[in-house]
Amino acid sequence: MVFAEISYIWYSIIDNPMAKLLFAGFIVILSYLPQITNAQKDSLRFKIEQISKLSQGSVGVAILNIETGDTLSFQGEKQFPMQSVFKFPIAMAVLNKVDSGKLSLSQKVHIGTYSLPANIWSPIRVKYPKGNIDLTISELLSYTVSQSDNNGCDILLDLLGGTKSVEDYIHSLGVMHIAIAATEKQMHKGWNVQYKNWCEPLAMTKLLDIFFKGKILSKSSTDFLWKIMEETTTGKNRIKGLLPIGTQVAHKTGTGGVNDKGMNSATNDVGIITLPNGNHLAIVVYVANSYAIEKTRDAVIAKIAKAVWDNACSK
C-alpha cells in the first residue's frame, strides 16, 4: 500500500525536475532509517557489553519501551537467579487474590515469634523483635516490596499456598521463562537453593509490561503496587544511581550473598523508568556470579541504566 502511494506521487511529479530531485532524496533518507535505528541499538548493546565486563561475572539485560514496543536485550534469554526480585511477582499474586475477594488489604495477619527467624533480613523483626503482632496485608506488602523484608515475603507465601501457586499464576499470564520454587527461609539453608528461583531478563520485562498496562490487576491494585515499588529503599545506587534527580522509578531489587571464594550470587534491579517525554522503559539488569565488590556491581547496573536513559532521550 505504501509503495503504491509512493508510485502515485512519483508519477504525479515526473514532469517537475526539482520536485523529482527532492522526492528522490526523500526516498534515499527513508531507506536509511531502519539502518540508523539498528545502528543505535548496536551502539547501545556494545556499551552494555563493555560495562558488563566490569562485573567480573555474568550480566543479563532487557529493555522495553512500553509505549512503542521497542526492545533490546543482552543475554536476554539466559537464566539468572532472582533473589528478592521474586517479591515483585509474589506481590502481583497477592493482589490478584485481593481483586478476586479472597484476601483484603485491610485483613490482619497474626505474626508469632516463630515467623520472624533472626538469621535473615527483616525490618519487621527489627521493629517488633518479640513478634506476637498483627499486621495488615497492606503493611506486609509494603515491608516485603519497599524494604525487601524476607520474613514478610514468606508470610505472604504461606497465605498464597506456597511458591508453586505463585509460579502457576505467573505462568498463567503467559510469562513462562521464570521459576519460583523456594522460600526465603529455604534459600538461606543452602547456597545452591537460590538458583531455583530464576528468570530470563526478557521474561521479566514482559511481566513488568503486563503489570504496567493494568490489564491483569485492578486499577487500585496496580496503583498500590506501583506506589510501594516507587518507595523502594534498597538499591539506591543501582537503576536510580546515575539518573537525573527526581526521575520516577518503580523498581524491585534482589541481592544474594558472597561465598567463601568471594563470589556474589546475584545483584539485581528491575523496574520501570518514566522518561521526560512521558514514555516508560521497563528495564531489567541481573548481575550474577560476580567477583566484583558491591560498589562495582551496583555501578554496573547504574551505568547500564544511564546508557539506556541517554539512548532513549536522544531519539
Task: Write structural notes for this entry.
- With 315 residues, the chain is α+β, with helices and mostly antiparallel strands.
- The protein has a single domain (56-313), classed as 3-Layer(aba) Sandwich (Beta-lactamase).
- It has helices at residues 2-13, 17-52, 87-99, 123-127, 137-146, 150-160, 163-172, 184-187, 201-212, 219-230, 294-313; strands spanning 58-65, 71-74, 80-81, 108-111, 133-136, 178-179, 198-199, 249-255, 264-274, 280-290.
- It has a five-stranded antiparallel beta sheet with strand order 2-1-10-9-8, sandwiched between helices. The chain has a three-stranded antiparallel beta sheet with strand order 3-7-6.
- The longest helix is centred in the first third of the chain and has 36 residues, at 17-52.
- Mean pLDDT is 91; it is low at 1-11 and 32-36.
Short description:
The protein has about 325 residues and is of the alpha+beta class.
Task: Break the fold down into its secondary structure elements and pairings.
Layout (H helix, E strand, L loop, with lengths): L1 H12 L3 H36 L5 E8 L5 E4 L5 E2 L5 H13 L8 E4 L11 H5 L5 E4 H10 L3 H11 L2 H10 L5 E2 L4 H4 L10 E2 L1 H12 L6 H12 L18 E7 L8 E11 L5 E11 L3 H20 L2
Antiparallel strand pairs: 1-2, 1-10, 3-7, 4-5, 6-7, 8-9, 9-10
Helix pairs in contact: 2-11, 3-6, 5-6, 5-10
